[in-house]
Amino acid sequence: MKNISVIGSGTMGNGIAHVYAQSGFAVNLVDISADALARALKTIEKNLDRMVAKERIDEATKNSTLANITTHTDLKTGVANADLVIEAATENVDIKLKIFRDLDAFTKPECILASNTSSIPITKIGAATNRPDKVIGMHFMNPVPVMKLVEVINGYATAAEVTALVMETSKKLGKVPVEVNDYPGFVANRILMPMINEAIISLFEGVAGVEEIDTVMKLGMAHPMGPLQLADFIGLDVCLSIMNVLYEGFGNPKYAPCPLLVNMVTAGYLGVKSGEGFYSWNHGTKELIVSKQFKK
Ligand SMILES: NC(=O)c1ccc[n+]([C@@H]2O[C@H](COP(=O)([O-])OP(=O)(O)OC[C@H]3O[C@@H](n4cnc5c(N)ncnc54)[C@H](O)[C@@H]3O)[C@@H](O)[C@H]2O)c1
What we know:
This protein is an alpha/beta fold. The protein has helices at about 10-20, 35-55, 60-65, 75-80, 95-105, 120-125, 160-170, 190-205, 210-220, 225-235, 235-250, 260-265; strands spanning about 5, 25-30, 70, 85, 110-115, 135-140, 150-155, 175-180, 280, 290. It folds into two domains: about 5-180, Rossmann fold (3-Layer(aba) Sandwich), CATH 3.40.50; about 190-290, N-(1-d-carboxylethyl)-l-norvaline Dehydrogenase, domain 2 (Orthogonal Bundle), CATH 1.10.1040.50.
């Protein structure tokens, strides 16, 4: 595999383009928004500059990484020579299914089509194409250049040789790929999101306050940040939507989202991105200040 196309140049797409380009692949980065593409290139350059300053890469690697990336707003030209496409567009079923139908039409028949989705079934995405054996999940973690894991998700029809190729390309990025099967939440979110939901239930039931819950998990379990802080970083709307995927996907009440989470999302308290969640963020993300809703 030489030519990689990345669809969507937001938080995840620019990170995926960065790591492939830095590993010497030719990357075509595609987005419907020219502004998003310009922002992505700026972000990649800024992240490379930080790596140069820390002496993790040299100036020549920075320049070759940037030279390996070409941007496109037209999907057809952006994927024409792709051996592997990684879709990291907005998490919306209709958008993803349309992209995969188009990818099926525009790419070479042997091209592998991967999705970075956090919650949409890979089997469903594969079924929208005429090559479900070549459709697979590549779930990178945020921030992509830093996080080692790639959760590689086999759809019901994914061929074993496709999985093997995707495991191999992930290793070429210096990542650690882990193979899992396609059930709601895969492994990462199936375990992480119920933990976050349980932290919110503990707060809702008055078992403990925001700082107490996060401190127990930080100091007691050596987690780098508490589950409520992490929920604020992920976005409470994203947490709610993934809990609903688990709840509906398994039909098991143990995955029911906490009513407090539902209320906060309805009221627009989404965490860092809205400025207020379990903590207040309007002053930036360095200092932890419990939101006034949860002050004792
Ligand atoms: N943000 C995370 O922490 C995280 C972690 C793991 C996986 N994911 C998954 O990665 C994917 C992308 O998430 P994100 O946080 O980078 O989103 P984002 O909102 O930052 O970026 C999405 C980009 O997709 C573009 N886009 C929308 N429709 C498009 C189309 N038809 N063709 C091309 N581009 C299109 C948008 O213009 C935008 O630039 C989602 O599936 C999400 O579930 C996100």
